[in-house]
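INTERNAL AUDIT FORM
Audit reference: QA-55
Scope: verify that the stored structure record matches its stored sequence.
Auditor: D.O.
Record contents follow.
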Amino acid sequence: MRNARWMLLVLALMFVFSTAYAQEDDGKEGLTEDTLDDMFKKKKVEKKEAAAQEQATKKPAEEKKPEQTFPPDERRISVTIKLVNGKTISGRVKNFLISERIKDHLVEPTWNLSDGPTVQHGMDEFIMDWSKISMLEYDKKNMENGEISCVEVSDVSMDRKECLMQFGYNAYAKDKKKKGAHKIKNKEMFRFVVATGKGDVKVDVHLAKVLIDNSRDESRDEKAMEAELKNLFKNRIKTMYFK
């Protein structure tokens, strides 16, 4: 019985080896050393080609812009900023900056020095110097504040979208003769660099309608863009007092 088992084992091993190597009768080659070497080389080439394809389709990394520097503002204006979330920031304004027109608030824009916001008062529209402003206040009377509407920009790309959020602030003059609200018209973003005594704080704020698109990353859909705008609205400025 034991000899029969050994005989079966030997026959099985012979069958395995006979199918793994060259078979002259049917003209097929088995797994010879040369065949294994060719398979290894082919796999290596395929892996290299796949890596090259992935590199070709990968988006180039965005270069980080060097941080812009500006001379301190000579108007020596102090500010107290109150946010809706209850936070307060106070100090001397080192720089009043305004961005170039952008549609992606997640990207650091190019900044320029700002003399003041563009405002509308009655039939007049003009730049109101920051030194002439006593207060900026969120326009609570605007019932459209916080409303968001999105559209597809199919003439640019099938996945390109724009979203607009209604927003509004009013400026009030120190000059008592210029009574009433001055509606701020700028669609650019402002940055106030405030020296608090504990370090400089950058406060970025939109003071009018906010328009964004998904040109930087078209995988951002309407839902994601609306969430970004709602976050801006939730962390908005309530009032700014200037002295």
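Auditor finding: record pair retrieved intact. Confidence is low (pLDDT under 50) at residues 20-25.
Action required: none
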